[in-house]
Each structure stands twice: as structure tokens, then as C-alpha cells.
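Example record for the data management plan.
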Amino acid sequence: MKGLGVSQGIGIGKVFKLEPNEIKVEKKEAENTSVEIEKLNNAIIECKLQINNIYEITLKNIGEKEAKIFKAQEMMLEDEDVFAEVHNKIKTEKVNCEFALNEVLNKYIKLFDNIEDEYYRDRAYDLKDIMYRLTKIILGYKIIKLSDIDNGTVLVAYDLSPSDTAQINKDKISGIIVETGGRTSHAAIIARTMEIPTVVGVEGIYKKVKFGDEIICDGATGKISINPSDKIKQYYKLKKQKEDDIKNNLVEQIGLETVTLDGHKVMLEANIGVPADIKNAIKSDAEAIGLVRSEFLYMSRSKLPTEEEQFQAYKEIAVKMKGKPVVIRTLDVGGDKELPYLKIPTEMNPFLGYRAIRLCLDNTDIFKSQLRAILRASAYGRVKILFPMISSISELRGAKKLYFETRQELIDEGIAIGDNIELGIMIEIPSAAIISDILAKEVDFFSIGTNDLIQYTLAVDRMNSKINHLYNQYHPALIRLIKSVIDNAHAANIKVAMCGEMASEPNLIPLLLGMGLDEFSMSPCSILKSRHIIRSLSKKECEELLDEVLNLEAGIEVESYLISKLNR
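Corresponding structural encoding:
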């Protein structure tokens, strides 16, 4: 079986099945609606106590960033509008509180689930977590403590809530397999932080396995082996030992240059969402922030962030990076990334819709407010600006025009801004890749967004489980497209970064080095491993490897060839 690997490593052990959170809630007539409302309010108080306890455990055992997940849940419990809707349902329909609660929260959960963007869909897990916890409290269910399970266990669940994951004892759990979930789910984030090998999106796994089955999960490839043969077990034990050896040596990479054996230097950078993520970037010895996903500042709120709020966030990042480059991507929302307060119409094809730079060029007040905030923050560090989803020269020139207008307005107002701010574009649409020789003359750098570039190039929705096997980062068309982008950029004397998942893929790092990629931007947890790999490679040999790969005809051939070369 196969799923999506979201936390690297090999998990080997006996299956422990976590019962699904699904609870059958019946509709009943409420004899006294005041009593039902009181039951709900008491459950909310108890739920807050439980969540605060989980927050303290998470803060102590995992970290501040991960603990904030539960502060966010606590804030959801204080959402007066949502629970006023539940109260109203109890009163007007004279129904039991657990039914009203599930009806109202499921409406919001469905709203998030229907958004294509993985980040938003995974926020539904917070609401589900709260709904199940409240329902269990109201109905008197016993809540399982995952900290009490046996050593050497591989946890298998249909659905794993954030609070379930936070209570896991990482010394006892050797792996996690979940039937649902995605790369940005809280369960995946916490599992990566705890360094527990984890695979999600394994359809049918919960019914397939039994308590006590032997099972292996590969958190890198997403492969699952149930009751494996001795040969398969031996293979994975050796692979695990090799990965453990590398992991134990990674701390030695801190402070070293990211340079190949033959002296070719590249940059290893971190992708972040909010200022709090800087802590992990610094801890992982990131040489820059290659991508600030500024849209995170616009999420989970009822109105647009002010210029001042944005400025303070960008300034904090710039200051903490102490002069190292910080690339801030301008607002990348719209289409599938729904912000209710923007009132963007629902679209048939949101990934191809009204989003990112298209939305910003139409809503210049929103765009210029963000540009003002970024420019003001540039006085406190080495800030660069990155425009997303550029598909034509006219879009780029439109964005630059607004940038220069905003810059001049700040200068006229006597507001300090940085000198020589670099402008770049995301190369994530095939049209931009194809005319990258033209676009390169207009900007200071490129950043290749492979997640979208792959799905646009191959016409594969990466969130569609029926066709996700066609989403192939080894496809020869993609490799040729990326190479042409890098070649065109270098011909114009500008540098190229990559901020998609490919940048930290061990099997592809040698290929990207051979192409001449200048900067690799990734999740902070992947930086030291990537440095270890790059320092063990020769640029010249990587160029020879690239020549061989360019003659291959299929993605499976490319993948097999690269794996064999890297292992050797």
C-alpha cells in the first residue's frame, strides 16, 4: 500500500489501531432548552481545561510553535458567533445540544473541506477535533490516552486529531499511518517536529490491518508493508540504520558552508509562514529565508490585516535574520484559498482562477498596502519581493509599476526603506517558464515553485487521489522545463531559487545541482540533511548525471536511475 510520506524515517513495529473519532449523534427533542444550553456551556469549560492541559504537555515535550495549535483551538471555543448559532438552534428547533453542536460545526467543516487548498482543508481538523471532544464530554465518553500504549508501536488511525498527536509519547511510537490527512495537517506538522516517521492518505489501511500485525512505514516514500517477508524487513532495517547514521551526524553540518566536493557553493534557505517559524529556521542554520508565505497573515481572521500589522510581522522576520536575505512573496490568495471577507465568487477551476497577482492587480489598495508594509520592513534587513503566479510580461510590468509607485510615495513621505531591493517572480506556470528568457531581463531573480509547476505542466490536480500517481516530479518534460528556466536566468546573469518540494528531495538534489540551481529553499527540518547530501557531491559529476538523465524517456526511468546513482 502507498500513501503520502509527511515525516521522514522508517517505522517498524506492531499495529495499534486507534478507534475512529466518529460518534453517532442522535436528534432528540429537548424537554428543557435551558438545560441543554447549560450542558453545552459546561462542556465548553471542561473542553478548555483539557485543551489547556494538552497545550502544557505540547509546550513541554514538543515546542512553542506546536503548542500554539491548541491556543488557536481555545480561541475557536470562544467564538461567540458560532456558539450563538448553536444556542439558537437548540432554542428554535428544541433539540439536544450535541445534535445542534454537530449540525452547526459540520457546516463549517464542510466549508473548509470544499476548499482545494491543502492548508485550508487541513484547518478543518481543528474544528473536527473540537467537535469530537465536546461531543465526548457531553455524552460521557472516555478519552484514550495515547501516552499509555506499548513500546515499538506503529499507530494506525482512520483520522488523527491534533490533540491525539500531541499526546503521543515519541519514545514509544515508531511510526504513524493515517487514512486521511495531508502534508500541512497539524498531525503531520507535529509528527515532523517529533521526528516520528509518518504516512498519511493511505486509503483503506484502517480496515486492512489488525491489532498486533507487523507493519513497516516509510515516511519518505509513503510505502507501507503489512506482515512483511524477512527479505523486506531486512531491507528496511538496513535503510533505517543508514538514515539513523545520517541523522546522528547532521548536527555536525551546522556552521558549515553548503559547498560541493569540487568547491561549488549554493544557498540553503527556509520556507516559513509566520514570524514564529523563524526559530526553527535559525536552529536549522538556514542561510536565508527563501520564501515567506505572506498569505498566512490574512488567514483565520475576519478582515484584512492592516499595513501596520503586516509591517510588524515582516520587520520581526527581517530583524531576527540579522542581515541574511528574506524573500517575501506577495499575497497568494483567491480562487481555492478563500478569504470570506474578500467575497470572491466561487469558481469552477480555482487553481486556474482569480488569485495571486491577478487579484492584486485588480485590488490595488490591498496590494499597495502590502507593498508599503514590505518596503517599510526593508529598512530593518535584506528584504526581497517575490511576485507569484506571473504568466505574462504585462502582469510583471503591472506589478512593477505599482511597486515603483508605492516606493516613491514612501520616499515622498520621508519614510525609511532599504536600498537596492531585489524583485523576483515565481516560475510556477508553464507560460512563464517558456518565456523565462524574456522575463529574466525584467527581474533580479527567479524562484521556481515546483508544486504548482508540476500540476500545471502535467495537467494533474495534486489533491485528486484518483490521479495523484500521475503527479510526477521525475517527468522528463518537467526536468527539461526547469533546466531551460535555469539556463535562461543564467544567460541574463540572474540567480534561480527553488521553493517547492523538489528542492529538498534527496534523489533530485544531484540533478538540480547539475542544472546549476543557485538556491534551495525548503522546510527548516530538511536543511541539514540537504547540506549533508550536497557536501558529499561533486558538481562536475552532477552535470554528467544530468546529461544521462536528459536522454531518458520516462519518469520511472529517471527515478530509478537517480536512486541507483545516489545509493552508489
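Summary line stored alongside the record: Residues 33-61 form the longest helix (29 residues).
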